[in-house]
Amino acid sequence: MNASELRDLADGELLEKERELTRELWKTKIDNFTNQLDDSAKIRRLRRAIARVKTIMTERAKQS
Whole-angstrom Cα distance, residue 39 to residue 24? Predict the structure, then answer.
């Protein structure tokens, strides 16, 4: 999901998206630790997606 799509989401949806991505990141890290992960770049993509969500949330908080 890119930044423009994330900006279209409501605040509650952004929080839920952050939680979902965080859960997926932890699951992916566990899979990586147990050598079950084929695509290790997925960890990087998830971290960046979480950062995008947090950045948008911070931008909205500063505007208020």
Answer: 14
Note whether 53 and 42 are within 8 A (CB): no
3-63 belongs to which CATH class?
Answer: mainly alpha
Global pTM value: 0.92
Residue type present at position 4: S
pLDDT in tens, the chain (64 residues): 899 999 999 999 999 999 999 999 999 999 999 999 999 999 999 999 999 999 999 999 999 7
CA angle 20, 52, 56 (to 5 degrees): 100
- Domain spans, the chain: 3-63
